[in-house]
Each structure stands twice: as structure tokens, then as C-alpha cells.
Write a structure and sequence with these properties.
Keywords: Glycosyltransferase, Membrane, Transferase, Transmembrane, Transmembrane helix. This is Cryptococcal mannosyltransferase 1-domain-containing protein. GO terms for molecular function: glycosyltransferase activity. It comes from Mycena albidolilacea. This protein has 13 helices and ten strands. Strands 1, 2, 3, 4, 5, 6, 7, 8, 9 and 10 form a ten-stranded mixed β-sheet that branches. It has two domains: about 140 residues, no CATH class; about 325 residues, Spore Coat Polysaccharide Biosynthesis Protein SpsA, Chain A (Alpha-Beta Complex), CATH 3.90.550. It is elongated and about 90 Å long. The N terminus and C terminus are likely disordered. By secondary structure, it is an alpha/beta fold. The longest helix is centred in the N-terminal third of the chain and has 41 residues.
Length: about 525
């Protein structure tokens, strides 16, 4: 049996090994940080930071990196300990008589080179060193393990209670469905449109099924229009149709609909496309005029949204609203900024707290619905009476004549005297008319509801998150709504001061409001501003 002297079986000292471990640990942290950063960049789109501002993305990357790094370091230290222990056992087996210096776990260079009969002082130093090193190892490993536990805690507590008021109720409704549902007895007309949405429809139909079980199949009508799709969208919607039939849900689902010509070459911001979308939305709303008896319209775009978020939308302000919207997102923040206007009629910001006027941004800062002039943002809930023929209405509209005349550019101008919202003809989605500020059909709906039906209680609910792509939905619904990230956004970023860059003289709640008659609201001068509204 071969044996080797201590000079041959020599390993680096404990101090040297610790230095190497620290260097490897830092390098490993930097590598993991870079990988998470690259992953977010790929997830949310090349060419842009994962989200603005950059500090937010760095904070999220750090939260993802630290627990991952700590877990890997825990495993690495355990493997190192196991390997050195095996080395010690092997050395004792190869050197049973003690003629050569034995390699002991956590030996330093001085002890490895000590003599066969060391002095009492050297022996005391060796004993103390051996006692301290396991303690240091355990303390370091415990620190890494604590970071792992923190990561697990962050993972299991990602849901904010304020975002999931109705999650337990929706889950109960889907375990034990009832035809009359678990909600209030409001009748909901659910409308939607789809085009080449095979990636969205499976998720959307699952969540809508959960919603219907919560509302009750007797309380919902589903109207869907799909047109000109070239993917599996029609087949998926037909499968959903069969499922609704089995549930006993009244419905009208039109697939491969071509009665409305699709513009040959247009984008979402051109007039032909706006007219086309308005006609499709009116087609989806057709059954409401014949069915009647519905309290609210729930109109969904082709978005990712959870059932409990839709319930949250329907219960905005305890149900005391005329129209409520969610918020839709893409990689740079709020998406549909063409439609969204704050309470004063101004454009919104893509970044939290989104609104630049006092009432709106303070509402968002406290997770409360913000009063707005107009919105859509992926999904809306609105009172049904304005869409219904006058004899079928349920008394949701005022019988008092309007005090503010319509602008001369409005297609309903001139309005007969003493016309009331209750006696006004049904509203329809439309495109801008000559002389009007060019807007989308989604903006013109709340505009007409305000001007023709005196429906001014319109809110954007920041707890209702939607997105047109799954990666953006995950980012804004699950990551940026995480309590730790939300704390960073609200307490550290705090809007980056953008919402404070203004000067208000007097009571902010009494600032004039835009009535929509001008493309871009200008400051009001004089005692009788024409664009003043209540």
C-alpha cells in the first residue's frame, strides 16, 4: 500500500480556500444577475429595457438573483464539505499508522506542516483553529440558507390581498356551480371580438367559464364575433360554443364572419380601420337590442385577464359607476394611451401612477379606482340602458334635460330641446365625423355617454390588469404587482416626481374639465369658460 508524506499531500490553506470561494461566489452572482437580466430582456422585447424606468428592472433582477444565487451556494458548500470529508477518510485509510501527517478538514498550511510532536502552544492553536472553522462554515451556510428561505417567502406571497378580493368566491363557484350564481342578481351581457387570437382564446375561455360559474349561467348572455382569422381561432371558439351549450348559457357566437368588409391595407390608427372596428363592435352588440333585460355590458378585447379581475371590475366603487375600465399593458407600460384620458381630459403617462392630475394619481397610489374622462384599456363594464331601445330600458338614465349643448361637430347635433338621456336614441360605436378630433371608436363611446347620456361616473380600476401578450401579462400582473416590487415602485420611484411637475392655484378638485369638443384642451381663460363641465 502506497503512502504519501504531508509535503506531497498538501492542499491550500483555509484562508486561501476562503478567498477563492469568495471570488467564485461573486463571479457566480454576476453571472446569474446577467442571465436573469438577459432573460427579462428577451421576455419583454429586444431593443428596449425590460421596463421603464431602468431602476425598476434592476430591482426585479436583484430580487430574482439573490435567492437563486444563495440556493446554488448552499448546494456548493454542502458538496465541498462532503468532498473534503471523503478526502479525510481516504487519507486516514491510506495512512492508518500515523507515520505521515493526516489531512484534516479545514486544516491550514501551518498545521499541515507541524512536527510530529508539536509544542503545547502549537497544539492549542491547532485546537482553537479547528473549533472556529466549523463555526464559521455553519454561520456562512446559514446566511445563504436564510436568503433561500426569503426567496421562497417572496414566491409564495406574490399575490396582493387587494388584487384578489374575489378569488376564493370564484373558486367556490367553480367547485359547486349554481345556475343563479354567487354574485348579485345583475344580468350581464358579455361581448367580445377576436381575430387571429389562437394564443389568447384558450386562456380567455377558461377564465370566462369561471366568471360565468360565478355570475350564474342564467344571468349571462355571451356574444362573440370572429372574422377573417387564418389560425385556429374559429375552431377554438366553436369548442367554447359547445361548452356554453352544455352549461345552458344563452349565446350568439359568429365565426368566420365576413359580412363586414375588412379594409385591404389599414392600421389601427387609420379611419377605415376605425370604422371597421366600430361596425364589428356594433355587430357584437346586436343581440342586446333584442334580448333586453340586461343591467350591464361587459365588453372584452382579445386580452389575457383573470376571472377574479373581471369580478373586481364589475364591483368597481361597489357598483356605483356608469362605466369602469381595466388597465392594459405592454413592455413600456400602459398600452392604450390614445383612448385613456384623465379626469381633466389630459393624456395619461405610461408609468405609474399614470395620471398627472391630483385626484387620479392619488387614487392610483392607494389602489383605488381613478375618475377619468375616457378609457377602454382591454375590458370595460358599462350600464346597458344607453345601448337598449327606449322601451326596453330599465330606468338607469336621467329624465332631466341636459344643460350642456352638443358641439356643432357632433353627429347628433342639433339636439332637440328638452331631450333627456332617457329619451335619447341608443348609442352606437362609431368613427370620428368630419370636423371632429380624430379618435378611436373606444374613445368616442365614453365621450358620447358623457355628452348625450350624462354618464360621468367613469373610472379606471388599477387592480384590473390586462395585456395582449402573455409575457407582458406576467410582467405587470404577477411581477410588478408583487408586494416587494410594488413597495419599490411606490416608495422609491414614487412616480419619479413626474406627477408633481405642475403648478395648481386653488382647489385641485375644482379644476375645469375637458368636454371633448376640442382635440387638445387648452387652459381656460375668463369667467365663463366654454369647456367647463360638472
Amino acid at each position: 500500500m502506497l503512502s504519501f508524506p504531508a509535503s506531497v499531500l498538501h492542499f491550500p490553506s483555509w484562508a486561501f480556500r476562503s478567498t477563492v470561494c469568495r471570488s467564485v461566489s461573486l463571479a457566480y452572482f454576476a453571472t446569474l444577475f446577467g442571465l436573469w437580466r438577459l432573460g427579462l430582456l428577451i421576455m419583454l422585447g429586444r431593443g428596449f429595457p425590460p421596463a421603464f424606468p431602468e431602476s425598476r428592472a434592476l430591482f426585479v433582477t436583484t430580487l430574482l438573483t439573490v435567492p437563486t444565487w444563495a440556493f446554488c451556494m448552499c448546494i456548493g458548500y454542502l458538496c465541498w464539505m462532503f468532498e473534503l470529508s471523503l478526502g479525510n477518510c481516504f487519507t486516514r485509510w491510506r495512512n492508518p499508522h500515523g507515520n505521515y501527517t493526516e489531512l484534516v478538514f479545514n486544516q491550514d498550511e501551518e498545521i499541515e506542516r507541524c512536527e510530529e510532536h508539536p509544542s503545547p502552544r502549537a497544539g492549542a492553536h491547532k485546537t482553537a483553529s479547528r473549533r472556529q472553522r466549523p463555526v464559521a462554515f455553519i454561520a456562512l451556510w446559514s446566511g445563504y440558507f436564510s436568503l433561500v428561505i426569503l426567496g421562497v417567502y417572496l414566491l409564495v406571497t406574490y399575490e396582493l390581498p387587494v388584487d384578489h378580493h374575489y378569488k376564493a368566491d370564484v373558486q367556490l363557484a367553480n367547485r359547486v356551480p349554481k345556475r343563479d350564481g354567487y354574485a348579485s342578481k345583475e344580468k350581464i351581457f358579455l361581448a367580445a371580438m377576436f381575430y387571429n387570437n389562437a394564443r389568447v382564446v384558450p386562456y380567455w375561455t377558461v377564465e370566462i367559464t369561471k366568471l360565468i360559474n360565478y355570475l350564474g349561467s342564467d344571468n349571462v348572455f355571451v356574444s362573440i364575433v370572429e372574422s377573417y382569422s387564418t389560425d385556429a381561432t374559429p375552431a377554438l371558439l366553436l369548442e367554447f360554443d359547445r361548452k356554453l351549450e352544455a352549461m345552458g348559457v344563452p349565446r350568439r357566437i359568429l365565426t368566420q364572419e365576413t359580412s363586414i368588409p375588412r379594409p385591404a391595407s389599414s392600421t389601427g390608427t387609420q379611419l377605415p380601420h376605425i370604422e371597421y372596428l366600430a361596425n364589428l363592435r356594433n355587430l357584437a352588440m346586436e343581440p342586446l337590442a333584442t334580448q333586453g333585460a340586461y343591467d350591464r355590458v361587459l365588453f372584452s378585447n382579445d386580452v389575457f385577464v383573470e376571472a377574479e379581475s373581471i369580478v373586481e371590475l364589475l364591483n368597481t366603487k361597489g357598483g356605483d359607476y356608469d362605466m369602469a375600465c381595466g388597465l392594459d399593458f405592454h413592455n413600456r407600460g400602459l398600452y392604450d394611451l390614445w383612448v385613456l384620458r384623465d379626469r381633466l381630459g389630459h393624456l395619461a403617462s405610461a408609468l405609474w401612477p399614470y395620471f398627472l392630475e391630483d385626484t387620479g394619481f392619488r387614487a392610483v397610489m392607494t389602489n383605488e379606482p381613478a375618475p377619468v374622462f375616457a378609457c377602454w384599456n382591454g375590458i370595460i363594464a358599462v350600464r346597458a340602458d344607453p345601448f337598449l331601445p327606449i322601451p326596453l330600458r330599465k330606468g338607469q338614465l336621467s329624465t332631466i334635460p341636459l344643460t350642456h349643448p352638443l358641439p356643432s361637430t357632433h353627429p347628433a347635433y342639433p339636439r332637440p330641446l328638452n331631450t333627456t338621456p332617457a329619451s335619447t336614441s341608443p348609442v352606437r360605436f362609431r368613427a370620428s365625423k368630419p370636423g371632429e378630433c380624430f379618435s378611436s371608436e373606444s374613445f368616442l363611446l365614453p365621450y358620447d355617454l358623457r355628452r348625450q347620456f350624462a354618464m360621468k361616473n367613469i373610472y379606471a380600476n388599477p387592480r384590473v390588469i390586462t395585456a395582449y401578450e402573455w409575457r407582458f401579462y406576467v410582467w405587470f400582473k404577477y411581477i410588478l404587482r408583487h408586494w416587494a416590487v410594488k413597495w419599490f415602485i411606490e416608495r422609491v420611484e414614487n412616480g419619479n416626481g413626474i406627477h408633481l411637475a405642475k403648478f395648481v392655484l386653488g382647489n385641485p378638485a375644482e379644476i375645469w374639465q375637458w368636454d371633448g369638443s376640442e382635440c387638445h384642451p387648452a387652459p381656460v381663460r375668463g369667467p365663463n369658460p366654454r369647456s367647463l363641465t360638472n
